[in-house]
Amino acid sequence: MRSTSKYTPPKSLALGSTLILAMSIFSVPTQAAEIATDPGDYTPLPAGVNLGILYGQYATRDAAYADGNKVPAEAGLDTTIGLARFVHYMDIGGIIVDPQIIVPFGKVELTEPFGPLQPTSESGIGDPIIGATAWVLNNPDDQQWVGLSAFASVPVGQYDEAKGPVNIGENRWKGIFQAAYVKHLSPSVVLDLIAEYSVYGDNDDFLGFKREQEDAQSLQSHLRYLLSKQSHVALSYYHSFGGETTVGGQKQDDRVNTNRWQATYATFVDPTVQLQFQAGQDIDVENGFKEDTRVNLRILKVF
């Protein structure tokens, strides 16, 4: 393992991912990428390095859409979510792999009556996510990388069947798969491209019904500008689609087609401690709550 006293972060280091919890409220869901990546997630570190990461995410939504039209009723959904994440880099047969675990926690609050639900909230620990990325192309000389990831969301988080979508846990298994390509376009400009595919198990107790969901997809991109060896700024774009749900055997006609932007500033305040600040919002939403404000904070420790 590399000593932290001698560790110097590479120019493009910006590890971490921001998990967006997907919650469907009958025909008006709010969904995004299951694991929304951050700029630099898919630039690998040397074997033996560990990361401890803590995230804070706050988002508000005061409008809901169905088939591209704004729902006339009052709507409100706020989420205050934290994530604790541990990542370990290792070498397996010459390939860098990073087994990891992500544990979500926090609060989901429905602030206005919506469909059959009255204002309510739920807090606690969510479903942990375990998985890893393998870098099948790791070429720092040519400054390009390809990473393949597989994750599983384990349904052991807090879940109240009477509150349906207003929960931290989801009472179902999920499989999340990503493929990423990273390339330096110049010494200071880096492009990250990520494709995600998600599959879902059934929730057998969703407000007394069985809830099923079709596969969902996401495309994510990050354009980074490296201000220095310690700091960078980035602009990100996320587009999520698919994932129509069925509740009690009835299709909900709630296929997702959502896109959003996000801006990032990250800097190392110490050779082994990085702070990251993000802000963004949804651009267009076909079905679901529209996110009008998102603020993220991340603290990363290398050891």
What are the main properties of this structure?
4-stranded antiparallel sheet; 12-stranded antiparallel β-barrel; mainly beta; 22 strands; disordered N terminus; 303 residues
User: Strand share of the residues?
Assistant: over 45%
Mean pLDDT across residues: 89
Q: Compute the number of helices.
A: 0
Largest sheet: 12 strands, antiparallel, barrel
End-to-end CA span: 9 Å
Radius of gyration: 19 Å
Secondary-structure element string = EEEEEEEEEEEEEEEEEEEEEE
Low-confidence stretches: 1-30
Strand order of the largest sheet: 3-5-8-10-11-12-13-16-17-20-21-22
- The computed structural class is mainly beta
Shape: globular
* Oligomer class: single chain
Strand elements, count: 22
Q: Roughly what percent helix?
A: under 10%
In short, what is this structure?
This protein is mainly beta and 303 residues long. Helix content is 0%, strand content 61%.
Explained architecture:
- The chain is an all-beta fold.
- Helix content is 0%, strand content 61%.
- The protein has strands at 17-19, 35-37, 50-66, 69-70, 77-88, 90-92, 95-97, 100-110, 120-125, 129-139, 144-153, 174-184, 189-200, 203-206, 209-213, 216-226, 231-242, 245-247, 250-251, 256-270, 273-285, 288-302.
- The strands form 4 sheets. The chain has a 12-stranded antiparallel β-barrel. It has a 4-stranded antiparallel β-sheet with strand order 14-15-18-19, with no helix packed on it. It has a two-stranded antiparallel sheet with strand order 1-2.
- The chain is globular, with a radius of gyration of 19 Å.
- The relative contact order is 0.21.
